[in-house]
Specification:
The protein has a single domain (about 15-230), classed as Up-down Bundle (Vanadium-containing Chloroperoxidase, domain 1). The chain is built from 10 helices and no strands. It has helices at about 10-25, 30-55, 65-95, 100, 120-135, 140-155, 165-180, 180-195, 210-215, 225-230. Helix 3 (about 65-95) runs antiparallel to helix 5 and helix 6 (about 140-155) packs antiparallel against helix 7. The longest helix has about 30 residues, at about 65-95.
């Protein structure tokens, strides 16, 4: 299956040349910026979005909602790691060479890529995180999915992946995250609930300030004598 896209008339190859051609026309500083963004920058941004999401969901007043949200958030990076592991046998089975091995004239921004091309690990991780964050919180999930799409564009722009490598990564990351989310929730929710009850680690699940405010807001029960006086 190494010859998935070796014909120049293939739309996959044509789109590769069109997107990678933008790198040839761009100034050198743009190429260097895209190299950093595509290799490290977007994944770092996704981590920051995940931390921002965690900071937000732990401020929920309802403990059970905070527990379920944090459990879903914990699953997101675990799903990304699992999806990359699933990709190892896929790559070995397909054995698709990198596009610059099969095609000439590409502007390759990252050297030293000797592994197989299908599917893209970067696209897989990025979309797995995006899908996991979307399950946790819609707003942060949409931001993360947007970053994942940008990651896919960067990988083709850099000349290290075909468009279908990226699409396959998106599909793999999404499938692993969503299909295993119910099982992950069953396993992670009790653990996160136990952490939320810990005096030392509970702040990881629910903000102590929120807990304190909620405790003050709960009215104290009135003494029985007051009830008897009102009835009289």
């Amino acid at each position: 299956m190494a010859g998935l896209a070796i014909d120049g008339s293939n739309p996959d190859v044509s789109l590769l040349y069109d997107i990678n051609g933008l790198a040839k026309d761009a100034p050198g500083w743009v190429d260097r910026a895209m190299e950093f963004v595509g290799e490290y920058g977007i994944l770092l941004a996704l981590v920051l979005v995940a931390l921002w999401c965690w900071w937000s969901v732990r401020r929920q007043a309802d403990r059970e909602r905070a527990v379920s949200s944090v459990a879903a958030l914990v699953w997101a990076p675990l799903a990304a790691g699992l999806a990359v592991l699933v990709n190892i046998p896929i790559r070995g089975f397909v054995e698709r060479p990198r596009p610059f091995v099969e095609h000439t004239g590409l502007d390759v921004l990252v050297s030293g890529k000797t592994d197989f091309s299908f599917v893209s690990d970067h696209a897989t991780m990025a979309m797995a995180l995006g899908a996991g964050l979307f399950v946790t919180h819609r707003k942060f999930g949409l931001i993360a999915i947007g970053l994942a799409l940008a990651e896919g564009f960067c990988r083709v722009f850099m000349g290290v992946h075909y468009p279908t490598d990226v699409i396959g990564g998106f599909a793999l990351g999404t499938a692993v995250t969503l299909l295993l989310a119910p099982l992950a929730g069953m396993l992670l929710t009790p653990v996160v609930r136990a952490v939320s009850r810990s005096e030392r680690l509970g702040w990881l699940v629910q903000s102590r300030r929120v807990v304190a405010v909620a405790a003050v807001a709960i009215p104290e029960p009135r003494p029985e004598s007051d009830h008897r006086d009102l009835a009289a």
